Amino acid sequence: MNEKAFFLRRINDHTQYLNKVTDTLRGRSNFKGTYACGCKLGHWLCGDAEGDLLDYGDDTLDVFYELYKEHQKFHDVSNVALRSHEAGNSRQETLAFTQMHVLSAKLITLLLALDSITANTIIEQHTQAA
Known about the structure:
Elements: H1 6-25, H2 40-46, H3 49-53, H4 58-87, H5 90-129
Helix pairs in contact: 1-4, 1-5, 4-5
């Protein structure tokens, strides 16, 4: 998590995944989707995320837990969209596609919140040390 623009990179990871799903639903690809811990964002969420965020306080962990939960929902819904597309169920595909984008917006908002919280904590630490 020490890399520059860490959370913006996680947003990029998520957006790339969303684009793969969208391309498949539009007939331009054959992406099968993954479970929540199988994508790049999920790898961090299911791995080092909680430990990375421990030092930032309870509010940060609350945002993390919400992000984790919403990320799981996103994968469940995106997989419904992909399976519905394969089955030719356009109504269910469209409903899942819409819900997928609503969840995507939530994920991005939560990642930006983590970026803001962690950046402000770092600034406060440097200000106090000076």
